[in-house]
Design goal:
It is built from ten helices and 18 strands. The protein is an alpha+beta fold. The protein folds into two domains: 222 residues, Rossmann fold (3-Layer(aba) Sandwich); 94 residues, Beta Barrel (OB fold (Dihydrolipoamide Acetyltransferase, E2P)), CATH 2.40.50.100. A six-stranded mixed beta sheet has the order 6-7-8-3-9-10, with helices on both faces. It has a five-stranded antiparallel beta sheet with strand order 13-17-14-15-16.
């Protein structure tokens, strides 16, 4: 009997290109109707993993299951997935309506029916007023919505998104990611979204999967990853954490839980200020410790300007013992 609690399962999935190991025996279960973000630095294997799920890359070893069915040997069209590419790949000579309807045309759906369906999905992404336009007459954000409607019209069980927001300006990126989350909730299907942006993954994901060197290093809800990173790599990559080494191992402390004070205030390191960055509500103060590590404190702007500091000044970075998070020794040794 098929296990349908999970929309997607990777079972020891491996991808080799000749002697290059791109993805190394990863296993992952994505529960039904989950917004999953694959996150990591360039070359970590996240896009290769997405393409293996889609069927655009063959699995060297292991299995891919969708709704409990092993699809490892099935072509993309038979997997029940749809993929939205980073470039959007819209047909320049077709109207928005025909771009959205194109996959239905390839499946032999009549013109009237496919246009009726295409109008429904244009309305879903709030683009019904642009049906007659060509892609060149649209902004980047509008093209993104058309590509999204085209991917959704086949009613996939899983939607795969490869860096879908990377071409948008920062303001539009926030608006479109809100739209993606709304659509995922309304449709009740799993979205698997590849990104290198920590902020994007934090905002969107129910399940954040952080990858490095072809391995999954941590997989959990974004808050769990942020609050409890398992290794120095995760703590540094997620950002806003200081990683400090002492005789007992390595610890992580969130920068927003640190402040500039004195040695009597609690656990601390000493050094000198190397940078001050105004960030609106917060001011980031970077400190080079006496042992040569760069750490930082995110200080509320009101508090910072009561007692400002500047590069070159001596500083003591302090935190509360309760905000110290121990990192796994096994990961430390592997660094």
């Amino acid at each position: 009997m098929m296990d349908t609690r999970f929309d997607v399962e990777l079972v020891s999935a491996t991808k080799r290109y000749g002697t290059t190991l791109a993805v190394d025996s990863i296993s992952l279960r994505i529960p039904r109707a989950t917004y999953c973000c694959l996150l990591g630095p360039s070359g970590c294997g996240k896009t290769t993993t997405l393409r293996m799920i889609a069927g655009h890359e063959a699995v060297t070893d292991g299995d891919i299951l969708i709704h409990g069915e092993n699809v490892s040997d099935l072509p993309p069209i038979r997997r029940g997935t749809a993929m939205m590419f980073q470039s959007y790949a819209l047909f320049p000579h077709l109207t928005c309506l025909d771009n959205v309807a194109f996959s239905l045309k390839m499946r032999g759906v009549g013109k009237a029916e496919r246009h009726r369906k295409a109008k429904e999905f244009l309305a879903l992404v709030h683009m019904e007023g642009f049906a007659a336009r060509l892609p060149t007459q649209l902004s980047g954000g509008q093209q993104q919505r058309i590509a999204l409607a085209r991917a959704l019209i086949t009613k996939p069980r899983v939607l795969l998104l490869d860096e879908p927001l990377s071409a948008l300006d920062p303001f539009l990126r926030i608006k479109v990611r809100e739209e993606l989350k709304r659509l995922q909730r309304e449709l009740g299907i799993t979205f698997i979204h590849v990104t290198h942006s920590q902020d994007e993954a934090m905002a969107l994901a129910d399940l954040m999967v952080v990858m490095e060197d072809g391995h999954i290093r941590q997989s959990a809800h974004p808050r769990d990853v942020f609050e409890r990173p398992v290794s120095p790599f995760i703590a540094r990559f997620i950002g806003s954490h200081n990683v400090l080494r002492n005789h007992a191992g390595s610890i992580a402390v969130r920068a927003d839980r640190c402040w500039l004070g004195s040695a009597q205030d609690g656990p601390h390191v000493t050094g000198h200020v190397v940078a001050v960055e105004y960030q609106g509500a917060m001011v980031r103060v970077a400190v080079m410790t006496d042992s040569g590590d760069e750490v930082s404190a995110l200080v509320p702007d009101r508090l910072f300007y009561q007692q400002p500091t500047e590069p070159g000044q001596q500083a003591t970075l302090v935190w509360s013992a309760q905000d110290t998070h121990a990192l796994m020794e096994a990961e430390i040794a592997a660094e």
